[in-house]
Amino acid sequence: MEMFDRMPSMTQLSKVEASAPQLTTRRFMRTSNKTKLVRIAQFGHVLAYLPLYIALKKGYFKEYKMNVTIVNRFGDHTTWQSVCSEEAEFGVADPLLMVGDSEIKGVVIASLVQRVPMHLLTRRPDIIYTKPTDFAGKNICVYQRPSTSYALIRKLADQCVAEGKAPPIIREIEFTTELGYLSHADVDAVLMVEPAASMAEINGAYRVFDGSKYFGEMLVTGLFGRLDYIEKNPDVSQSLVNGLQKALNLIQSDRAQAVAIARKEFPEVNALSIELGVLRLIAEKSFPRRTVVSENAWYALSQLRGQSASVPLFRDFVNNRFANSASEAKLEISAVLALNPNLYGIGFNLPALLQWFRSKLP
Predict the structure, then answer these.
(1) How far apart are CA 237 and CA 226, in angstroms?
(2) Are residues 355 and 249 located together in one domain of the fold?
(3) Is the pTM here over 0.90, yes or no?
(4) Would you state the pLDDT for residue 146?
């Protein structure tokens, strides 16, 4: 599988990493009395955060006089650390990383990804991972902890042991390096997010495990911030959630335009990988229809993290005030293309849908 050695790494593909603005410790920055500068730290530049990128590209935040900038932190814990240190007002990542902080109180105000948008890729199509014991003894690469991907495989490893099988060997790797590990002889499979998963698939790898199908609804990614900042700046919080809700509305009502925006957001990635990645995320319902955080999704994440003995209470860490307001408001968007409803019903036809999308895109 020499093709994987020639594939560019996600580090090479991430334009955000190369050009991201440097974080500053200036407290709660503002550009003027009218326009507010808000910094959002994110886990990384991934396709699952498409609602955030759509809100930026379409100017939804600017409609509320918000000048939003995004910075990569390459980790869930480092994202929360940026919010704690006031290098960023908000974070987009696994929200449960903020629970263990005893000094600074954080709160989730919006859902961004409601199912596990991760797939296991391999060079070996003969092995299908459908139950925990299928992972027994396998060498699996995941993003280094603390991360959602590590927690997912750790959960499956514990289930293997409970059934009397040897746990998988978990190999922690850095985010953006996942594609290169597919060519390692001692690696059975690599857990990936989009667009890396589609890039690998197009170049001959096989998807053998679907995280969204196995784990179901789960608050994988939320928009969160410091409680003190949110209480002092409710207008900022409401504006951000409104922008994200409009972006989710666009994804549901004009999916071809969502794909087009994604292609512009990831220009270094081939167009087919982006289209396949976006359509798969839509088909798997990774993008919620509303920014409201559900209790089921919150507790599913808590149990994944092994915190069932002392479950962080939903009411203590989630505030749906802004999301409820955004969902009730008429946040209209301009739809560019008409939909073909026959392609969105039961029995999602990915090849047909992809063909239709490509015929509509400029």
Answers:
(1) 11
(2) yes
(3) no
(4) 78
